[in-house]
Write a structure and sequence with these properties.
Number of strands: 14
Number of helices: 7
Strand order of the largest sheet: 7-6-5-8-9-11-10-12
Shape: globular
Helix content: 25-40%
CATH class: Alpha Beta
Number of domains: 1
CATH superfamily: Vaccinia Virus protein VP39
CATH architecture: 3-Layer(aba) Sandwich
CATH topology: Rossmann fold
Strand content: 25-35%
Distance between the termini: 42 Å
Largest sheet: 8 strands, mixed
Order of helices and strands: EEEEHEHEHEHEHEHEEHEEE
Length: about 250
């Protein structure tokens, strides 16, 4: 890898590097990979393409993203004439996203904690996407029933909530626990997952999501398109654990 930049922040060191083989730009925080894009700012992460496909199906036009990193989803959405707002606690993320990942100035950015932003704003959104990690995990307060209530207040009546999670293995029930919390807020909750894969991403969704289909690759990146398409193909809606004794979803 070709090292491009290191940015020291109060939330860790952001490292930007480039693959000499593919030209991919890699975003890491304290050594943990949090994003990758081709030279045009199109994501090389399958879960970003999954979120993009689901938002396209939902016809979401005004979208709030909580968590930025390289902001590749925001870049991709902005190219389809959607209104995008991104909230991140790390101010440096936006500068890095604009310098190295093609985030346009038209994307509105706020330096704020996600739950506090939702409490303070009066705006309404067609979709709210949670993709905020501290290390390898989403902070617990962003997976709570209280947070789900804040999200619902800021969603349009037919809006959707999508949350990206890291699942370590089939015994990791983090997606099921979030689904249970969201079920107390919305009647319709689903889990999109790649069962059998270690260290994978899963998407928990709520709101008007019953008609959403498994995602497909809609934007061709310059590299790894076949790999990304195959990874998307492994994502399926699955039944989620509703309690210790019965299942639903």
């Amino acid at each position: 890898m070709i090292q491009i930049d290191d940015i020291e922040t109060e939330f860790g060191t952001i490292n930007i590097s480039k693959s000499p083989a593919t030209g991919a730009i890699i975003y890491k925080v304290d050594g943990r990979k949090q994003g990758a894009a081709d030279g045009n700012g199109t994501s090389l992460a399958y879960y970003i393409h999954a979120l993009f496909s689901l938002l396209t199906q939902a016809d979401a036009r005004n979208i709030l993203m909580i968590g930025g990193a390289g902001c590749t989803l925001g870049t991709m959405l902005s190219r389809t004439q959607r209104k995008v707002t991104i909230v991140d606690v790390n101010q440096a993320s936006f500068a890095v996203a604009r310098q190295y990942f093609g985030l346009p100035e038209s994307v509105t950015s706020y330096v704020a904690e996600g739950a506090l932003f939702l409490r303070d704003t009066t705006d309404s959104y067609d979709a709210i996407v949670l993709d905020a990690f501290h290390g390898d995990f989403v902070p617990s307060h962003l997976k709570s029933e209280e947070f789900g209530g804040l999200v619902r207040k800021r969603l349009a009546p037919d809006g959707v909530f999508l949350a990206n999670l890291l699942v370590l293995n089939d015994f990791d029930d983090c997606a099921d626990r979030l689904a249970r919390n969201m079920k107390s807020v919305w009647p319709d909750v689903r889990v999109l997952d790649s069962v059998g894969i270690r260290d994978r991403n899963a998407i928990v969704m709520a709101g008007r999501v019953s008609q959403l289909r498994e995602p497909e690759l809609l934007v061709q990146p310059e590299a790894n398109a076949k790999v990304i398409s195959n990874e998307l193909g492994r994502m399926q809606f699955r039944r989620w654990k509703a309690s210790r004794f019965d299942f639903g979803g």
